[in-house]
Amino acid sequence: MIHQQIRPWGVLDERVLETMAEIPRESFVPDAYRGLAYADIEVPIGIDNCMLAPKVVGRLLQALAVKPGDKTLEIGTGSGYLSACLSRLGARVVSLEIDPVLANAARARLERLEFARIEVREADGLAGPVQGGPFEAIAVTGSMPTDAALGMLRDQLAVGGRLFCVIGEEPAMRAILVTRTSQTGFRQQALFETSLPSLLNVVEPAGFEF
């Protein structure tokens, strides 16, 4: 996985590579898909949900550049794999999952595997500001069709904080990194093209009508 998928996709941060090599991805994959735990695919979990492909996780972690002690918000816990990676990098993670079944399963899994500094909450990450901010890093694991929610999310960043999210609709989605440069200033950088399932409860753009 590391040498065939992640490095070739431009992930060269040794801390990220070591973290992903150390964490047993198969422990976060449903039993039916264990044989595909390290494949270059989005493994299905729950209903209309999936784990991010390993190469996307690597690019996300590299972009956020989490340091020990960083307060980090994750929107979309899913299986808990990304939460585990963030924690192993030293982050203090608040992870929100709107699906109660996924939230409970991820919480139990992370506790069983003894990952520390992770709080999984059953909540909608787009409903409003999250208690515990501001955050040094925010990871959004589902896509949003427009940047309508971007202002609310980036306002939860500390100065110097980084936000990773995917904006757009099929077939044109792009991963972006937003950095808060000051109390009122933000810098936005396009990272790569990808395709992710949409976040639940995200506001869909109005369709064209004649």
From TrEMBL:
Pfam families on file: PCMT
Family annotation (SUPFAM superfamilies): S-adenosyl-L-methionine-dependent methyltransferases (SSF53335)
The keyword S-adenosyl-L-methionine belongs to this UniProt entry's keyword annotation: yes
GO cellular component terms listed in the entry, alphabetical order: cytoplasm
Residues of the Ribosomal RNA adenine methylase transferase N-terminal domain: 56-188
Assigned keywords, A-Z: Methyltransferase, S-adenosyl-L-methionine, Transferase
Organism superkingdom: Bacteria
Record GO terms (molecular function): protein-L-isoaspartate (D-aspartate) O-methyltransferase activity; rRNA (adenine-N6,N6-)-dimethyltransferase activity
CDD domains tied to this protein: AdoMet_MTases
Keyword Methyltransferase assigned: yes
Residues in coiled coil: none
PANTHER family linked to this entry: PROTEIN-L-ISOASPARTATE O-METHYLTRANSFERASE (PTHR11579)
Family from the record: Belongs to the methyltransferase superfamily. L-isoaspartyl/D-aspartyl protein methyltransferase family.
Protein name, UniProt field: Protein-L-isoaspartate O-methyltransferase
Organism of provenance: Imhoffiella purpurea
Native organism taxonomy: Bacteria, Pseudomonadati, Pseudomonadota, Gammaproteobacteria, Chromatiales
